[in-house]
């Protein structure tokens, strides 16, 4: 049933457009939905997003708004696959063990940092 919904009703491209909303609360919600989508997406769906430069498009959308700490924490959760606060230290071994797709999620983080400094 999940296969019937993914890419037919729920598409990553739609989330990329929705994140443009000026409300940080809506942006956080969309990022959390994207994270749930990524966790359930097939390799082909993830590859399609990478091929279409989805993380760069996401960074471009977010770059037009002021970033917030909460939004940054959402992306850190996507990156690590678990919740980590900005005030917490993380083990560099965790970064080495992250799959390639998750490593690409650092691109929007860089876009957020640019507008938040």
Automatic annotation (TrEMBL):
It comes from the Eukaryota. This is Lysosomal-trafficking regulator-like.
């Amino acid at each position: 049933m999940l296969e019937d919904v993914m890419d037919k009703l729920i598409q990553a491209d739609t989330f990329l457009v929705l994140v443009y909303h000026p409300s940080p609360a809506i942006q956080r919600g969309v990022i959390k939905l994207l994270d749930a989508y990524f966790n359930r997406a097939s390799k082909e769906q993830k590859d399609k997003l990478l091929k279409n430069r989805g993380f760069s498009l996401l960074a471009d959308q977010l770059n037009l708004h002021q970033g917030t700490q909460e939004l940054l924490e959402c992306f850190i959760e996507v990156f690590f696959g678990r919740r980590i606060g900005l005030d917490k230290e993380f083990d560099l071994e965790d970064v080495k063990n992250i799959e390639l797709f998750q490593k690409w999620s650092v691109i929007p983080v860089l876009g957020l940092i640019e507008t938040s400094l």
